[in-house]
Amino acid sequence: MKRNAALFLVMALRMAIAFSSCPAGAGETGNAPPSRHLTLQEAVQLALQHNHDIRIASYTVEEKRQAKEVAKSSYFPSIRNDSSFMHVTDTELIEIKAGSLGVAGATPIPPGNAIINQGGENFATSGTQITQPLTTLLKIRRKNDLAQAELIASREKAKLAGNDVALAVHQVYYSILIAEAHHSATEARIKASEALQSERLEQVKFGSALEQESIDSRAQLLQAQQEILTTDLQLSDLKLKLNDLIGLPLSTAVDLDAAVTAAQETCRREECVTTAAASHPEILAARAEMQKAEAAVRLAKTDMWVPDVEAFARYSYQDNVPFLARNFGTFGVHFGYDVFDSGRKRASVHEREAQLSQAKENLARLTDEVELAVDTAYNKLDRTQQMLKVSEEVVALRNESNRVMQQKLLQGAALNSQAANAIAQQYDAKALLLQSQLNFLQAHDELLNATGRTPE
């Protein structure tokens, strides 16, 4: 398949649409806004930048990246300040009897009963503590492994979303070009039907044709006009869908460039399957999910047997608290272990193991599905290539048939309706050829997507 031939074919069909459908004086209105010219590559780039699904996937990646930073921060010591202000309704008093502390020179100490207040009714405390986990570092490592696996999975899912959106853009883009080609072919068919209807009316008028034949020609004309309306509706829907995919306002008029890149050489079937198994984003995401499940199992087992041990140092300040210095420090080690938890941790281990089994089975399922997708895309590529060869032969025959019919028209051996019908059949054949060419490109894009690559 030659890219230049495909481009020439599409441009010829578009020129036919322009000349056949543009009414006289239409260019003088100037009210319609100018359409935006788009190439396939530009449409894909716009989709990768503005599509909602891709943006959501990118935000998910950022969420998981920050979650990994949160898990990583647990390796380092934490510093925390706790401060409080309190008011009590009453305080305890201490009474010291006269002379209870002894006698000095016949003078009792104290000389009379003394009442000492313990602190005040308003008091404040403030302490700043630094804590470094010790044995819990093992648990923190498992949590970091889990967060890392989630980050990898989110990145692969984002890449998968990009691949799917790019493929969808290709599909809609090709569908618009095919619909425009069929629109041109239907316009040519309408011209042929109009010529035939005019001839039938003249023949019925002079008695050389039956009225039934005139009715049949009129029905053919109406059917062709109905096809035009259907194609117009299809084009409108497709362009709305394309605008939504690439993030343009739905009312934007787009003019698609027909110069699509020719398909490149593909890998062999076995190589494609191997490549897909090694690099397809969906499989890589499933592997990351399995690694996440493995990390969760290790975390549950660590939490089951390893106690919590952490070292801490605290500097405290107080005001009006009895029997405490105004400023003092505290140092120590904290040890914590659940002696009995009613089987909660053991059940958590079994839960994580079941999740790991699910992740492994899901990876096996996705591997089979990707292999099936590669085989299906490869078969479609072979079929569309065969259809392309048949379409090329049909176009060659229709071109020759049209050439012969135009010569007969010049010689007076053919009617205008027959010549117009030959042209319509030629346009139909060219439209089908363009459809076969774009179907071949679409099959190639689907094979790229099945192997984990982004259609460009």
What does this structure look like?
- The structure is a single chain.
- By secondary structure, this protein is α+β, with helices and mostly antiparallel strands.
- It is built from nine helices and ten strands.
- The strands form four sheets. A four-stranded antiparallel beta sheet has the order 2-7-9-10, with no helix packed on it. Strands 1-8 form a two-stranded parallel sheet. It has a two-stranded antiparallel sheet with strand order 3-6.
- Strand 9 (308-319) and strand 10 (327-336) form a beta hairpin.
- Helix 1 (3-21) packs across helix 4 (136-205).
- It is elongated, with a radius of gyration of 41 Å.
- The two termini are 18 Å apart.
- The model is unreliable at 1-11 and 15-30 (pLDDT under 50).
Summarize the topology.
Layout: H1 3-21, E1 36-38, H2 40-50, H3 52-73, E2 78-87, E3 93-96, E4 103-104, E5 107-108, E6 114-117, E7 122-133, H4 136-205, H5 211-246, E8 254-256, H6 269-279, H7 281-305, E9 308-319, E10 327-336, H8 344-411, H9 416-450
Parallel strand pairs: 1-8
Antiparallel strand pairs: 2-7, 3-6, 4-5, 7-9, 9-10
Helix pairs in contact: 1-4, 1-9, 2-4, 3-4, 4-5, 4-7, 4-9, 6-8, 7-8, 8-9
Summarize the structure.
The chain is of the alpha+beta class. The protein has nine helices and ten strands. The radius of gyration is 41 Å and the shape is elongated.
